[in-house]
Amino acid sequence: MIQVLVVEDDENYSYEISEELEEKFKNICNFSYAKNLDEAKEIIKFKSINLMIMDIIFPLHSGDISEVDYKAGVKLLDFSIENSFKGSILVLSSQNKSFAVDLLIKYKNVKDYAFKDSPWIEIFYKVQKQIDFIQEKQVLLSQVAERFPFIGKSKALDKIKLIAKKTANLDSTILITGPSGVGKEVTARHFHSVSNRSLGAFIVVNCAAVPENLFESILFGHKKGSFTGASEDQIGQFEAADKGTIFLDEIGELPLMMQAKLLRVLQEKRVTKVGELLTKDIDVRVIVATNRCLEEEVKKKTFREDLFFRLNVLPVKIPPLKDRIEDLSELSDFFIERMFEKTGLKKVLSAKAKDLFSRYPWVGNVRELKNTIERLVILTESDEIGYEDVVSILNVTDESDYRVGFPLNISNYKDVKQGVIDCFHRNFFTHYLRENNYQISKTAEQISYNRNDLSQHIKKLGLDKD
User: Which structural domain range is residue 105 located in?
Assistant: First the structure.
């Protein structure tokens, strides 16, 4: 349901709103009412308001019924800015048109203005327009969350989610660090999606993939004719991210000359296109990521210290996958479901396969897990991905496959020795037979063993393929 806050001190007009607007939109909206500034602030603080319909003149406090404040509405709008109010605002008042225009210009959350003496059909239209926008926004955010989910329930990821929630209404620069493949871009998208910029653009720039002579043009844009090949004007990625978020991946690869220019943009919040003297204001949240240790790069003079301090406002470290094994199951299920959506192949991981997953080092982190799941879904013949399937893809063997024991209740040396040897043969030969699809000649060649002797062991130990 869409949460609507009506700020109106006139009881008669408030009643009309409940009879007209609330009745019309009761199936999709929940209405709350405030008669003064204090009540409105309390509701905004404790409710996720999607749409605020407000007058401009009303009392500041509960006891001031007859003492209206002509600046109460402006104070409420200022309060909404200070508290990074994410909803839309429709001003419903009797002030003149020039005042309405001033509000629309000054406050970006004020989406429209209607006069109280307007016909209800006109007010319906303006409210419906805002509701449609909010519904589209909710659908869009849902789609983004489904496409780029931030999956995991480890303590490390819970901490990151908490930081994202706490800074949702702030524009603090974020520095994401962690080894390759841990999901730094997905983390950056999560920070963007829960922020008050979530409907704005999310622009990704891979600094490692940009030619050094094109950095300035790509980041800040260029004017036609400013250099060879500049056949037309082009906006930069910072300008494209205006009102949204720009994500600079592999920031450690940024050349020193560009580091100085980036620092100036971060300080001044302005960009200058190549070949142009005029600067343009930008409203952008900056998130950067690297798998390097920037402190070490600063010591080696390959990364500017002042830029590092400017970027390291809110450091977020993502541990490698091997250090957050509790995320494995949920991630695996997600990638399997994604493959089902792409291929129609429905698979599940067996208990033994999951167990082996939990003990595999995952040097390539989440990226390696994703690629492994894709291969397993495509290559596994049965509906269940088993232990043997995982072994064949990852080309590893669980150390327990070679672990043999001996019965303490049998004291005959020869009997115990033969039992241990048979156990070893069973585990060793089974592993390589499975790897070679039970082709005896191929298996014997791989393990440098006599084919006839291997065949005899297979018969003796019952290792034939079922």
Answer: 2-144
